[in-house]
Amino acid sequence: MQAGWFDRLHPLTKLSWAITVAIAAYITPTPWGAWVMMGVAIATPLTSAQRWPMYRTLFGLFVPIALSLFIIQGLLFPTPGYGRIMLGSYSLELGGLYVASISLARIVALGSGLLAVILTTTPSVLAQALAERGMPRSIEYILLMALQILPDMRQRTHAILEAQQARGLIITALPSRIKALIPLIGPLVVGALIDVEERAMALEQRAFASTNPPTRLQQIVDSRAQHIGRTLMFLTIGGLIIARVSGVWS
Fold it and tell me: What does the domain layout of the chain look like in residue ranges?
């Protein structure tokens, strides 16, 4: 699959973009600012070759959040003055839906941008890009492990389930799935502990504690245009924060 425009960007450019969109969505005092940033964040996957997997993930993540927000704000925490919709014996406050839409816009702006970065950037490449900008190697390793823990656990869980099913474990309905969790926990925990020991030995053999700069097999391509773009994004963030704190934009 040919990489899209967003896929080819430097990891720090993607991360700067996600942070800028998220901060702008939360710091703008007007509701339309949050809605605009949400639209920008949702449109970001259109520039990626993985747009449809991204949108499926976004739909699965944010539809339950949206329903919860609209129900809670509309029924349990009403905001009077905007009218209401009668649903039988319940009244759905439009003011609560208005507040829920702003909260949802900010959550989607934050989550969509970060999800675009995670799904289009290999964790090792992102950690290497941060390390090349001066991040300590210990922080690089912690970040890399944090980004890889869920995929590693998912892969290990899938392998254990396949091995148990090959030995006669039958998983059909919900009760059998719950029962299968018990024999799954033991191998999963033991495998995780063994993996930690193997990683520690590998780090020791690769001179992890050495103060010399490591040799990178993969070079991350950066450009002057992207560097200027990141600088402008950070200046934008600083300007938004100063304007909001000083009261110029309130």
Answer: 11-121+232-246, 136-205
Q: Which residues contact 21 (CB under 8 A, 6 or more apart)?
A: 37, 40, 41, 44, 109, 110, 113
Residues ≥6 apart with Cβ < 8 Å to 70: 96, 97, 100, 104
Give the E-state strand segments of the chain in sequence order: 84-87, 90-93
Q: State which residues of the chain have pLDDT below 50.
A: none
Report pLDDT digits (tens) over 192-214: 777 777 777 766 666 666 666 66
CA atoms within 13 Å, Cβ hemisphere of 166: 6
- Reported pTM: 0.73
Torsional sign, CA 156, 160, 166, 169:
negative
Cβ atoms 105, 79 nearer than 8 A: no
CA distances, 27 to each of 20, 31, 103, 175, 238 (Å):
10, 10, 12, 47, 11
| Contact yes or no for 243/235 (Cβ under 8 A) | no
